[in-house]
Amino acid sequence: MAILGFQVSPLRAQQETPAEIMAQSNNPLAPLNGLNFNEYYAPSLYGAPGVANTFNIQGVLIPLRRHFDLFHIVRATLPVNTVPDDSGNPVSGLGDLVVQDAFRLSKMSARTQIGVGPLLVVPTATSAFLGAGKWQAGVAGVLVIGLTGGSVIAGAVTWQISFAGDASRPNTNLATFQPSIALALGQSGFYLSSSPIWVLDFANGSYLIPFSIGVGKVLQLGKTIVNVTMEPQFTVFHTGAGQPTLQLFAGLTLQWKKEHRPR
Fold first, then answer.
1. Distance (Å, rounded) from C-alpha 159 to C-alpha 139?
2. pLDDT higher than 50, residue 13
3. What are phi and psi of 261, to 5 degrees?
4. What does the pLDDT look like over 153-211, one tens digit per residue?
5. Measured at the alpha carbon of residue 202, what is the angle toward residues 198 and 204, in degrees to the nearest 5?
6. Which runs of consecutive H residues, i.e. helices, occur in the chain?
7. pLDDT digits over 92-144, tens only?
8. Is 124 within 8 Å of 108 (Cβ atoms)?
9. What's the Cα-to-Cα distance from 177 to each of 30, 82, 191, rounded to whole Å?
């Protein structure tokens, strides 16, 4: 997934239960700085030869609140892509940089949490096959609901449209939706996961809707929360060539609690 409300306890780390740690780790609105690595491998594509692979490197930062009592989370995602060219030969390099700033509109203690904020896409792709060649802007929103025992369900949506860039490249109008669930398996730290990303490319009439089910594990090593996930993601609906028939997703998340400094 790569892709997107449990009650976050103000207790000290040593007092938190495994369920609380798991809930925070799987909550995109929790006060955790992080470094995420997400791999999406597609062994075959509809209507196109070759394979595709996306390796997302994402940094998550909660800025210091020196002057305003405002909680927001900045995410910057840089993909490293491999896609086939028109002849099926692999092209590898950087994709477009995506920066999101999510402002949490609900209290930290709320069972249901909402976040919304702007989105900016910077055309950093090293090849025309790896990015849109356009500056894009849009909005992102997330809804997170905490369940008992450390389980979390969530939904994240983004929309972006081009406003500048290479005039010879087509304009973009793209939305994504990521339903996700982390269903805790007792107090073991393991959970069932599902985090497919639906892609709705309105500009090209190309759509992708996958379904996934996998397993994850959350554990704490010192001050670092480690979250590992693996999911096969099966395409259940698509239009347009080049869509993956199947994706194998693997994710590694390293997280650290945001230090609360007195003002």
1. 6
2. no
3. -100, 135
4. 999 999 999 999 999 999 999 999 999 999 999 889 999 999 999 999 999 999 999 99
5. 105
6. 18-25
7. 999 999 999 999 888 777 889 999 999 999 999 999 999 999 999 999 999 99
8. no
9. 20, 23, 22
CB distance 148 to 163 below 8 Å: no
Whether 79 maps to a domain, the answer reads: yes
pTM above 0.85, yes or no: yes
Mean pLDDT of the chain: 89
Length of the chain (residues): 263
Is there a domain that residue 263 lies in? no
Q: How would residue 70 be classed by pLDDT, with cut points 50, 70 and 90?
A: low
Q: Is 219 contained in some domain?
A: yes
**What CATH number is given to the structural domain containing 31?**
2.40.160.40
Please report the DSSP string for 185-219 in residue order.
Answer: -TTSSEEEEE---EEEETTTTEEEEEEE-EEEEEE
The owner of tokens 């073991």 is 188
Task: Give the residue among 39, 38, 40, 45 at the shortest CA–CA distance from 238.
Answer: 45
The answer to whether residue 4 is domain-embedded is no
> By the 8 A CB rule, do 57 and 252 touch?
no
Backbone angles phi, psi at 25, to 5 degrees: -65, -35
Domain count along the chain = 1
**What's the rounded Cα separation, in Å, for the pair 192 and 28?**
17
